[in-house]
Write a structure and sequence with these properties.
single chain, 129 residues, alpha+beta, 38% strand
Length: 129
């Protein structure tokens, strides 16, 4: 197989570090294992962030997400671990990870975790007529 799962997150220089802008990434095929039953858990991850100096490279993100396929993790733990790793790699001004897990036993779970750089404040919303 030419590619394999990897915990290495690669980054590249933000082409416009002088500006706040939002990057949104949808990852519809996240899988991990339930630590209680060993059964697969499926989720769609929604990553939104305002980069500072570095952006995450998408192929490395894909391989990183793939690395969870055979790992057991509670929804809350895996969501926060992914956010922690992405923050460590990119040091964003703001980052939010929303993990929407598929139904399990009649229950849907959504976990939202956020990071905000201590010295960053978002611009006020713009209301257009």
């Amino acid at each position: 197989m030419p590619t394999r799962p990897s915990k290495d997150l690669e980054t590249f220089d933000n082409p416009h570090p002088e500006r706040d802008y939002t990057i949104r990434i949808r990852i519809p095929e996240f899988t991990c294992l339930c630590p209680k039953t060993g059964q697969p858990d499926f989720a769609t991850l929604h990553l939104e962030y305002v980069p500072d100096r570095r952006c995450v490279e998408l192929k490395s993100l894909k391989l990183y997400i793939w690395s969870y396929r055979d790992e057991g993790a509670f929804h809350e733990a895996v969501t926060n671990q992914i956010l922690n790793d992405l923050v460590a790699a990119t040091a964003p001004r703001f980052m939010r990870l929303t993990a929407e897990f598929n139904v399990r036993g009649g229950i849907y779970t959504t976990v939202v975790a956020e990071h905000r750089a201590p010295d960053w404040q978002p611009a006020p919303p713009v209301s257009l007529p």
